[in-house]
Amino acid sequence: MQRRKYLIHSILFLITLATTTAAGAEWIFGRLFVPYPSSTPMGWAEFVAGFNFSIPFLTVLTVHEFGHYFVARANKVRVTLPYYIPFWLGFVQSIGTMGAFIRIEDTISSRRKYFDIGVAGPLAGFAVAVLLLWYGFTHLPPVDYIFTIHPEYKKYGLRYGEFVTLNLSKANNSAVALGDNLLFWFFKTYVADQSLLPHPYEMVHYPYLLAGYLSLFFTSLNLIPIGQLDGGHVLYAMIGRKRFNTLAPILFIGFVFYAGLGFFRVSDFSTGNDEIFRDQLLKLLLYITALFLAFSRINDQPITALLIALSVAVGQFALSFAFPTAEGYIGFITFAVVLGRFLGVYHPETEENEPLSTSRKILGWLALIVFILCFSPKPFV
């Protein structure tokens, strides 16, 4: 039985290594393995180049999960080895995985144990992510590197960045830029050689930078102090169940409010075009449904979830009307639905509710600082 479990973990890891390597190759070379009619199909050499993304990214993910694992074992809590989740389709851009998780096989009896296990993963992964970013920004390839991916930029030389947006527009293509967080901005501004720093829309082709940025992004999501996320475990342990279950829904509603801010504006419905009005109305109904799902476990009464959803939507409309440039990040809504509907906003109660030691409280504040350093209000532009 034990050998069978090890085999499952190993197979999942190897499949995830393959899928993240394929995804990394797609980001590096800017095309998918299932090619469009006008694109050149990728082969073995491009796949191998994808290891420059998959190995550092999975290293951070693995260190994060084993941080949880070893601390859980030290606290005599039975846990499984990490289950890696491969996810790659070949015809849609992805990062090749939906992450990893360990399964806790015991009831965690105390706030202290929740804190130790919860904080260990993000802090361990963050330390490796910082090293990865330092390496990526101090070992940027020569400018000629981007010309191997975009030969059309070569004629512009070092001024290619001035023409990137123009070329994208002419080709009717879309591109992704990595949104800043405090740590990524620091490395870009003060660590990187500015003459080698790629244009924001070309940074995804640099595998170490992409792996490092994604590591920070997922660290920040894990440290959101809600529900049974790592940040939720940490905050619950620091302030106790009663205060946590009062604060967590407030934080969650605030997070959802920010996410959808600016997605709808009053002007969207006053164009005078009936077809556009119907399309926007349908879009709004789908959006309110998503909000309802996100808030569905915040209270036992469905009508409460619906009222909160409608109140958030009205508040977003009002703020967007008063401040037309205010805008959140709609991509967070999907995460909010998963968090609110499936993971839950509240935290399970523990038998032992002893306060944390001073040293653990300091670690808790350090986790908050890490969250602030890693969080990007608009992760992908």
Features:
381 residues, mainly alpha, two-stranded antiparallel ribbon
Q: Give me the Rg, rounded.
A: 23 Å
Proportion of residues in extended strands: under 5%
Order of SSEs: HHHEEHHHHHHHHHHH
Q: Distance between the terminal alpha carbons, to the nearest Å?
A: 47 Å
Question: Unreliable runs, pLDDT <50, ≥5 residues?
Answer: none
Described by strand count, sense and barrel closure, the largest sheet is:
2 strands, antiparallel
Helix count, per DSSP?
14
How many β strands by DSSP?
2
> Helix proportion of residues, in percent?
55-70%
Strand order of the largest sheet: 1-2
Average of pLDDT: 91
Structural summary, described in words:
The mean pLDDT is about 90. Helices cover about 60% and strands about 0% of the residues. The relative contact order is 0.12. It is mainly α and about 375 residues long. The protein has a two-stranded antiparallel ribbon with strand order 1-2.
Strand and helix map with partners:
Elements: H1 2-29, H2 44-49, H3 51-74, E1 83-86, E2 97-101, H4 111-138, H5 144-149, H6 161-171, H7 182-191, H8 207-222, H9 230-239, H10 241-260, H11 274-294, H12 302-322, H13 332-343, H14 358-374
Antiparallel strand pairs: 1-2
Helix pairs in contact: 1-3, 3-4, 3-8, 4-7, 4-8, 4-9, 4-14, 8-14, 9-10, 9-14, 10-12, 10-13, 11-12, 11-13
Summarize this entry quickly.
With 381 residues, the protein is mostly helical. The chain has 14 helices and 2 strands, in the order H-H-H-E-E-H-H-H-H-H-H-H-H-H-H-H.
